[in-house]
Amino acid sequence: MNCRVFPPDEMLETQVSLPLSKSISNRALVINALTDGALPLKKVAKCDDTDVMVAALSSDEACVNIGAAGTAMRFLTAYYSSQPGREIVIDGTERMRHRPIAVLVDALRACGATIEYVGEECYPPLRISGKKLHGGDITLSASVSSQYISALLMIAPTMEQGLRLTLEGDIISRPYIMMTLSMMRRWGVESEFVGNTITIAPQKYIPIDFEVEADWSAASYWYEIAALSSGDVSLCGVNSISVQGDSEISKYFEYLGITTHFDDGVVELEPSPDLVPRLNLDLSDQPDLAQTIVVTSCMLGIPFHITGLSTLKIKETDRLEALRAEMLKLGIVLTIERDSELLWDGSRRPIYEIPVIDTYEDHRMAMAFAPVSLFVPGIVINNIEVVSKSYPDYWLHLQEAGFKFQEVVAENG
Predict the structure, then answer these.
(1) Which residues are catalytic?
(2) What is the CATH number of domain 22-200?
(3) What percent of the chain stands above pLDDT 70?
(4) How confident is the model at residue 413 (pLDDT cuts 50, 70, 90)?
(5) What is the mean pLDDT of the chain?
(6) Fold: same for 2-19+213-407 and 22-200
(7) pTM listed for this prediction
(8) Which of 295, 361, 366, 397 is deepest in the core (most CB within 10 A)?
(9) How many C-beta atoms lie closer than 10 Å to residue 63's C-beta?
(10) Is the pLDDT score of 254 beyond 90?
(11) Over pLDDT 90: what percentage of the chain?
């Protein structure tokens, strides 16, 4: 469905109960599945990405389709490879069939896995014959998706020799790797991370009682709304001390006019007139915040140079090109450099009609552009249902905050 989005009639004032973290949920599901005598997880995120993980891990089917869930594709490829006697084909959407996975497959094969490409070489679907992996020493480029690395780390304790993983070059998305190791430690698995080498000996996960915290990535869109509206926004469920790298959003938005106050499980977002004249950020550790920060900066008229975005080209869509194309509809001229940097020098073009924003089957495009309605009332967001991937209640929460929606019906002929 395509919808026009209109801002609240009055000054925005809302308190939001954020969804649970899907990054933590998906790791917890895999680790728990690898744990003998595991205790049931009380609650995990309710969204497409986590739903397909839950369904896949409880399925005995010979073929599992994980839709558009990239995390599930990577984590489950490793998980199934480590399960002796499990024969399975793992597939996804057409877009998933064009998201590369050879780096992970090659690494798993080096650990002893039996994996075949069913269709095009280097891409899903995959046919996996699970077995006890021997593990050992492997090397990966540090610039690859951290999900490849996390997938390998979580199954490392089950390998005969454990795993000694050396990462070559500068590590991107380090907080996600640290999240994985921290959660493994909660389940009793020790590791060493010295320099660029992670070492995990053969050992067993220990059953624990675990609770998933709220999602800092989801919080980022409310930071954007607070910055663009100067309204009163408070968030429930996120913690000041978090394993989520995206918790850095609270620091980044200090440059964009939002001060964060933590008070007994509630985060208060206080608007401030203090804005930086130009924003320079390296988002190597938090690439999922790029869309939120780019759109907010543009709407506030703050030029920027954002680096560390090399992984955005292999997300749900090529997020660099998607941002450039959709911001142009708002008269904002972005520049992409070295396939990993976004720049804006303040250049604008006139716009003559209300923009219609394409979302490219990417939840973060929809959620980052909806708040633009505070500046451009009636902006159209196409395929609004894509938010179900991570934040199904997003539109409901916007409505509760006073935003209004009008379905756009396509004309025939």
Answers:
(1) 288
(2) 3.65.10.10
(3) 98
(4) very low
(5) 93
(6) yes
(7) 0.88
(8) 366
(9) 12
(10) yes
(11) 81
CATH number for 2-19+213-407: choose from 1.10.275.10, 3.65.10.10, 3.40.50.300, 3.90.1210.10.
3.65.10.10
Q: What is the residue extent of each domain of the chain?
A: 2-19+213-407, 22-200
Matching residue, tokens 């552009």? 369
